[in-house]
Amino acid sequence: MVVKTESATPPFSPGPCNRIVIYCKNIDAMAQFYADHFGYQPSQKDGDRILELMAPDGGLILMLHQAGKGQRNGQSLIKLVFDVRDVEHTRSNLLERGIKVGPLHQADGYCFANMKDPAGNSVSISSRAFA
Questions:
Q1: How confident is the model at residue 9 (pLDDT cuts 50, 70, 90)?
Q2: Residue 111 phi, psi (nearest 5)
Q3: Of residues 106 and 25, which shows the higher confidence score?
Q4: Is residue 106 part of a domain?
């Protein structure tokens, strides 16, 4: 596969993808699995609905989120999360480039907005890492 690098618009990099949201029915079982088999350690702020799992040597942060009633086990239930300091500015830039981005959301001291990639996968830009 060849990725086209020449574009009418200049390259834009809002921030790195350091997190992935995994929607699951049993958060405790998922946390135990990743702790026992991959060394991930859980971290959760009081009142937060997301349980973050961090590897001792860094790398991608797994964010466990309760799955909705309509979501089935085994169904692809992920969301890529790009860490950005200024979600509003990044969202505006993406909209100017023709990307359909949902509204801004406020949650537990940070901001995020959601979109879909060309294959229909969920993608988010979020300031959670800086909260």
A1: low
A2: -125, 150
A3: 106
A4: yes
User: What is the tally of structural domains in the chain?
Assistant: 2
Residue 55 in domain: yes
Report in angstroms the alpha-carbon separations of 71 from 23, 24, 30, 62, 114. Answer: 8, 8, 16, 19, 18
Strands annotated E in the chain: 17-24, 41-43, 51-54, 61-66, 78-83, 105-107, 110-116, 122-126
Digit-coded pLDDT (tens) for 77-123: 788 898 999 999 999 998 998 889 999 999 989 999 999 886 677 88
Higher pLDDT, 29 or 2: 29
Q: 3-state class of 75 per DSSP?
A: coil
Structure tokens at 12: 């834009």
Residue 58 lies in a domain: yes
124: tokens are 């988010």
User: Which residues span the domain enclosing 125?
Assistant: 78-131
Q: Distances in Å between the alpha carbon of 12 and those of 16, 79, 89, 96, 121?
A: 12, 20, 12, 12, 20
On whether residue 16 sits in a domain, the answer given is: no
The answer on pLDDT for 63 being more than 70 is yes
